[in-house]
């Protein structure tokens, strides 16, 4: 059924699942974000190994597309990002703050800590006032960043920033995936008030969902993650971003089961009619979340094949009832791709979690991106 297959008769054939990452699609998503916010520049959140897709390959592709600002969670991720850039100039910001024990690593890899409280800011002033940084203002998410009292102390005392190289101020939207949520407006008002007190510093506010809000949310620098990788940051609206990743796994065995037969652990699926099913070489050890067995599906030749029974560690069973032609061992079944959002919904989770859980066992195949413009 598929254009390509693993031939079981080929001694070199391997019945192993693969993860296909489309670097050109990620680059096109970067360009789409730039079109959404033409007055801002677009950065890229590449933490958690570029959301599980492989930072060492994704970061150079984004740099080729023109990205010059990257964000990571940890200093170790920042070092990997700097290595992936292979000498190309870019700013790399580390969300988890300034920790004196990491100062040597920050300097060596030219990483910029994101300051989350006044204690960190004082340590930076004392130990490394020349180290570029960003300052995070918490405007309502209550996760990281200077809260209202700390922010007021900083804004009322300009000496806090004297002599420091502050490259960005930022905040993070909690509900950008819900455009009508009232917290969006309250956070915008609070961040705009901070920006008015620090007018000479570039401001970053919009995550992927924020990029799809009104232009007043965009400020100077977008900070998208999910949208780059094809996830939909604003359910209910048209998705302007392309899927960039899919699982492809070979069929290992095809069999017929009779009405009344069960399939999988726990016998939670019972056939109501005679049917043909296929066992596929991928499972929750690869990141195909176990919970998405209830309502999840793959595709063969574009045709949906519902998952039946429980997903196992290495195996998944699919229903072939809607496939018109023959299916044989070695034929490929694809998962995610254009279906990543409904698959996440079936698993009762979010696309972010689905992506970062994609396992390292996959053979990773990268479709090439577009080269950097001369």
Question: How many H/I helices?
Answer: 11
Low-confidence stretches: none
Fraction of residues in helices? Answer: 25-40%
Tell me the number of strands: 19
Along the chain, the helix and strand elements come as EHEEHHEHEHEHEHEHEHEEEEEEEEEHHE
Structural class: alpha/beta
The gross shape turns out to be: elongated
Provide a descriptive summary of the structure in words.
The chain has 374 residues and is of the alpha/beta class. The chain folds into 2 domains: 23-229, TIM Barrel (Alpha-Beta Barrel), CATH 3.20.20.10; 244-367, Beta Barrel (Lyase, Ornithine Decarboxylase, Chain A, domain 1). Helices cover 26% and strands 22% of the residues. The protein is built from 11 helices and 19 strands. The protein has helices spanning 23-36, 47-51, 55-64, 75-85, 103-109, 118-127, 148-156, 182-197, 208-211, 340-346, 351-356; strands at 18-22, 41-42, 44-45, 69-72, 91-94, 112-115, 133-136, 166-170, 203-204, 221-222, 245-257, 262-263, 269-270, 275-280, 297-300, 303-308, 316-319, 332-336, 363-367. Strands 1, 11, 14, 15, 16, 17, 18 and 19 form an 8-stranded mixed sheet that branches. Strand 15 (297-300) and strand 16 (303-308) form a beta hairpin. The chain is elongated and about 75 Å long. The protein starts with 17 loop residues before the first strand and ends in a 7-residue tail after the last strand. The mean pLDDT is 93.
């Amino acid at each position: 059924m598929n254009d390509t297959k693993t031939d079981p008769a080929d001694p070199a054939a391997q019945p192993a699942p693969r993860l296909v990452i489309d670097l050109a699609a990620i680059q096109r998503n970067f360009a789409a974000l730039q079109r959404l916010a033409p007055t801002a520049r677009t950065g890229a959140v590449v933490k958690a190994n570029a959301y599980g897709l492989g930072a060492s390959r994704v970061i150079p592709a984004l740099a080729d597309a023109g990205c010059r600002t990257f964000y990571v969670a940890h200093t170790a991720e920042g070092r990997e990002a700097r290595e992936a850039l292979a000498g190309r100039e870019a700013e790399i910001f580390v969300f988890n703050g300034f920790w004196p024990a990491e100062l040597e690593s920050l300097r060596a890899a030219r990483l910029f800590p994101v300051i989350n409280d006044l204690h960190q800011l004082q340590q930076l002033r004392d130990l490394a006032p020349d180290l570029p940084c960003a300052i995070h203002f918490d405007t309502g998410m209550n996760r990281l960043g200077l809260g209202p009292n700390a922010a007021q102390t900083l804004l009322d005392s300009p000496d806090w920033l004297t002599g420091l190289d502050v490259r960005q101020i930022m905040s993070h939207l909690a509900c950008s995936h819900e455009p009508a949520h009232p917290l969006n407006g309250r956070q915008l008002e609070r961040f705009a008030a901070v920006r008015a007190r620090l007018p000479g510093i570039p401001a970053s506010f919009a995550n992927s969902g924020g990029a799809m809000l009104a232009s007043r949310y965009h400020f100077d620098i977008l900070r998208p993650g999910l949208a780059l990788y094809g996830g939909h940051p604003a359910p209910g609206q048209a998705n302007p971003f392309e899927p960039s990743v899919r699982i492809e796994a070979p069929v290992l065995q095809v069999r017929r089961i009779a009405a009344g037969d069960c399939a999988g652990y726990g016998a939670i699926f019972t056939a109501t009619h005679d049917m043909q099913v296929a066992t596929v070489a991928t499972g929750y050890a690869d990141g195909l979340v176990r919970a998405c067995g209830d309502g999840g599906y793959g595709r063969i030749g574009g045709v949906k094949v519902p998952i039946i029974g429980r997903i196992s560690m290495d195996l998944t069973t699919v229903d072939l009832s809607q496939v018109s032609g023959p299916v044989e061992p070695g034929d490929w079944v694809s998962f995610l791709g254009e279906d990543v959002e409904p698959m996440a919904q079936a698993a009762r989770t979010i696309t972010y979690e689905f992506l970062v859980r994609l396992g390292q066992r996959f053979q990773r195949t990268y479709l090439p991106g577009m080269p950097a413009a001369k």
